Amino acid sequence: MKIRQALSGVLMVVAAMAPAASPAAVNEISPQCASIDGLLRQARTEFPALKRKKFEAATCVYRKQEFRCDWAFPSDTFAAAETQASRLARCVAVVSGAQPLAAKSGEARFQLNPETSVLIRGPMLDSGSWKLRLQVVTTADWN
Questions:
Q1: Contact, 33 vs 96, CB < 8 A?
Q2: pTM (two decimals)
Q3: Is 42 buried (19+), middle (13-18) or exposed (0-12) by CB count in 10 A?
Q4: Most exposed among 30, 65, 105, 109, judged by the fewest C-beta atoms under 10 Å?
Q5: Cβ contacts of residue 141 below 8 Å, gap of 6+?
Q6: How far apart are CA 97 and CA 94, in angstroms?
Q7: CB contact at 8 A, 140 and 116
Q8: Do 100 and 84 contact (CB within 8 A), yes or no?
């Protein structure tokens, strides 16, 4: 039952992160990417507001200059974790001003502006589950 609930939550997140349907969508964020677009707009303009940001089925943590969300997928659901990672990367890629950066295997990196970057890592196997991480980092001082 717990696996079914976890998969249900994951599928909701995957649906919410679905990529834009066409290249024309680069100028227009699709409804499926709206939550990521909103998160990244706040990250660029009012990073401390991310303290209140949450994603279903994810554990999110805010620190002074970092916002991170982690998803855990049961060990037999690699395809769902991989799909989620790809969709997150596509949603970040269509955000206005996002520039892809060199990344290691299993990662996607983007620069949003001189102060703000995004890392998507995973899926990676950890403690019997596939883990996926979205990390937004700023170098700006928001004091």
A1: no
A2: 0.75
A3: middle
A4: 105
A5: none
A6: 8
A7: yes
A8: no
Nearest to 41, CA basis, from 121, 132, 112, 140: 112
Torsions phi, psi for 119 (to 5 deg): -125, 130
Q: How many helices (H) and strands (E) are present in the chain, helices listed first?
A: 3, 6
Encoding tokens for residue 41?
Answer: 């707009």
For 14, counting Cβ atoms within 10 Å of its Cβ (0-12 exposed, 13-18 middle, 19+ buried), the class is buried
Extended strands (E) in the chain: 58-63, 66-74, 99-101, 107-113, 116-126, 129-138
Q: How confident is the model at residue 115 (pLDDT cuts 50, 70, 90)?
A: very high
- Return the residue matching tokens 């659901």: 77
Residue with tokens 């066409």: 22
Tell me the pLDDT tens digit for each residue of 40-89.
999 999 999 999 888 888 899 999 899 999 998 888 888 889 988 999 99
Whether residue 28 is predicted with pLDDT greater than 70 in this model: the reply is no
Q: State phi, psi for 104 to the nearest 5 degrees.
A: -75, 165
Residue 136 has pLDDT above 60, yes or no: yes
